[in-house]
Amino acid sequence: MNDIVLTGDRPTGPLHLGHYFGSLANRVRLQDAYPMYVLIADYQVITDRDLPGEIQRNITDLLLDYLAVGLDPAKVTIFQHSAIPELNQLLLPFLSLVSVAELRRNPTVKDEIAHSSQQAVSGLMFTYPVHQAADILFCKGTLVPVGKDQLPHVEVTRLVARRFNERYGEVFPLPEAMMGERPLLRGLDGGKMSKSRGNAIALSATDDETAALIRKARTDSDRLITFDETRRPGVANLLTLAGLCLGRSPEDLAEEIGYGGAAALKGLATEAVNEFLRPIRKRRAEHTEADVRQLLSEGNERAREQAIITLDEVRAAMGF
Ligand code: TRP
């Protein structure tokens, strides 16, 4: 089978090293092997907040992050929800294929509701996974590289595809989630790495910002550096981070640091991250806001052509 890869991000803030090692590095590899779509999921921003916020700024930054890490717009179609009416229109028939009980059961949605600061849960919070099925199926995506939290959404997509095909005839492939073997990279305070928690190193961070964040990282006072994820999570996390940046094992780095203590560890991690980010920063600086916007509009055009074809097929299958 000829696979098609689709994945995406919500434009809610700059991407960080957790995103890089968790998914961006994998995308850069995949773009050489498959036709690939990367979605800037702008309509998904308003699932867990009332307003889209600095949406244009965030979209531009996301595009710059993509290009900086090496996504190549000649190979990858980068596009956004709000520019593709035909993709969004797939939501209506797709919603008819799932029950309210199924929507309520989605564990990722439940988790997002639990962590949301909104007064009321919107209808979109329950239905966006079906919209996500439209994201994946409009281009007949078959491989969806995502993190564990997205697995329920890929399941919804398979359910929608299967039921559509049963009711109206074979139109959609059943996509598969693709999970990398990602080492867990925590934030510098030991929690989940997340921009909003101020514990993440953005791909756009400067040398000084990186140094300041690592300086504040939680460690301990044992001079002998060892890699022990349960007893020394802060130390282990810095070793993991440095190891990923250097392409070396955290155990090996621990041995090298030996009795250098937290100061030596932080020095080494800062050096490693800054060295790693250097070419990314350089590539980012090669692009202007105007040219990334132009690339997005070209991607939108290509994605839209595909969405028009799929929507026509859907209407014909349904007899509309
Ligand atoms: N929900 C994803 C996230 O929060 C973003 C996303 C939207 C996505 N549509 C998608 C991911 C389709 C994979 C496929 O990160």
Automatic annotation (TrEMBL):
EC numbers on record: 6.1.1.2
Alphabetized GO MF terms: tryptophan-tRNA ligase activity
Gene3D superfamilies: HUPs, Tyrosyl-Transfer RNA Synthetase
InterPro entries named in the record: aa-tRNA-synth_I_CS, aa-tRNA-synth_Ic, Rossmann-like_a/b/a_fold, Trp-tRNA-ligase, Trp-tRNA_synthetase
Keywords: Aminoacyl-tRNA synthetase, ATP-binding, Ligase, Nucleotide-binding, Protein biosynthesis
Pfam families: tRNA-synt_1b
Family statement drawn from the similarity comment of this UniProt entry: Belongs to the class-I aminoacyl-tRNA synthetase family.
NCBIfam families with a match to the protein in the record: trpS
Protein's name according to its UniProt entry: Tryptophan--tRNA ligase
Gene encoding the protein: trpS
